[in-house]
Amino acid sequence: MPKLGTSLVPTLLLTLAAPAAAQPGMTPEQPAGGPPVEQPHGDPQPLGDARAGEPPAAPQGPPPGSTQATFVSTSSEGWEVLLDRQPACATPCSLYVPPMRYVTLRSRDRVLLDVGYLPAGSVVVRGKPLSQGAYAGGIVGTTFAGMGLAAGITLTAVGWGTGRDGMRTAGIITTVPSAVGLYLSIKLMQRAAPRADVLPGTPYVGGNTVGLAGTF
User: Fold this and answer.
1) Is 197 helix (H, G, I), strand (E, B) or coil?
2) Cα three-residue angle 199-205-208, rounded to 5 degrees
3) Which end of the chain is more exposed for a tag (fewer CB within 10 A), N or C?
């Protein structure tokens, strides 16, 4: 007859092992950030015409008939370059100006200096600001010379009308130097006024230096 303890031991072991086998396995933890995303292979393709099988467009050059212009200032006061009244650059600078674009220079005190339409080719536009000292001297000279001229004309007219030779001579002596002084004063004011010179040639830019190469 078999022993009761010997037969119960295997049965007890099977009973304890069955619930353990029925439990579901542990789900492995996922790394932070979600599941890995598969990356596409190869280099990215350009958008636009390349997707349709067409080669990418080549960079466009300046319009035909454009002017290669370099803008400089003759003093430390710079100029703002305007194309059709729209800001383009500040001196010193170099750019291609399309044909039929009106060029204007504007100073810091909002003085506009019309340059006009540039010829085709390579040019240097040189902006000269107002010379304050020369302009003030021209104004003073014009004032005194104008007063002398008016007095001389009056003396000459009165001397001729009354037959007084001394007054007529004094009028002539006053009129001639005053007329010459007035002319020179006006020329001085013209030279002192701001202006723009368009010089033909090949411009070059090196560092902070802008110059003009050519024979004039």
Assistant:
1) strand
2) 115
3) N
67-129+194-213 maps to CATH 2.60.40: yes
Q: How far apart are CA 148 and CA 185, in angstroms?
A: 13
Residues of the chain falling short of pLDDT 50: 1-9, 11-28, 30-31, 33-34, 36-51, 58, 204-216
Residues whose CB falls within 8 Å of the CB of residue 84, separated by 6 or more in sequence, listed in order: 101, 102
Chain Cα centroid distance, residue 85: 12
Tell me the C-alpha distance between 161 and 148, whole Å: 20
For 13-134, list the strands marked E by DSSP: 67-73, 80-83, 86-90, 93-97, 103-106, 112-116, 121-128
Per-residue pLDDT tens digits for 140-160: 999 998 998 898 899 888 888
CA distances from 179 to 57, 116, 136, 167, 187 (A): 68, 34, 19, 18, 13
pLDDT tens figures, 62-104: 777 788 999 998 888 889 999 998 999 999 999 999 988 999 9
